[in-house]
Amino acid sequence: MQEESKPSVVTPTYQQKGSLSTFRGTPEEDHLKWLKEYDRVTKLNNWDDMMRASLIFISSLMALRSSADEQLKSRSQRSGEITQSYIQSVLNQEVNPLKTDDEKVSKLMKGIAEDIYGALLTKEINTPADFIKWCNYIEDMKQERIRRRFERLPNVAHVAAMENEPDFVSVIRRIVQEEFHRMISQTREPILYSEPYPQTQLLKEVVQDEIKKALAPVSVNRAEIQQ
């Protein structure tokens, strides 16, 4: 018995007329030219408003993805940016879920800071998790090296004394003695004055002036230390 031939099922296909380029929104692109192209293609295919809206939505997603890819290609660790911040930024911006671990590690290595990059070259890194682990280890070692180099002794004084700072009491005593002897040697004989005790007043002014001069260098040195 001869089998009856079954009719073949033909699935209708839709052939789009004309091609529409992807608008990425870059400064070099002419948006008016793209809109004219978009209007021409939609009229050529007799698309309704639903089809037009779908095309705009798909084109927008493609443009966003293309823009994100371009930014990710040039992404590198900035000056002052911590390594973990750079890693998270790169991994979060990755829009291609099909990228392998090897490709992700390659992208991270291309933009990492130079000092970290040199240390990572000797490590076995196959996944982003390995990359993060070794970056943390390298930064911890760097911090530990800094702490050991500048480790403080427990008996360090809080304030450093100045070697050339004079004893204030000795300075005042010396100035008073010198001025007193100098004035006594100049006035061997008593002199009558209209005001009481002018020598005492003069001695006081001279002593005050000399003390200010003697303490001036100390004040300047302390100001320099505070700066």
Automatic annotation (TrEMBL):
<feature type="compositionally biased region" description="Polar residues">
    <location>
        <begin position="8"/>
        <end position="24"/>
    </location>
</feature>
<protein>
    <submittedName>
        <fullName>Retrotrans_gag domain-containing protein</fullName>
    </submittedName>
</protein>
<feature type="region of interest" description="Disordered">
    <location>
        <begin position="1"/>
        <end position="24"/>
    </location>
</feature>
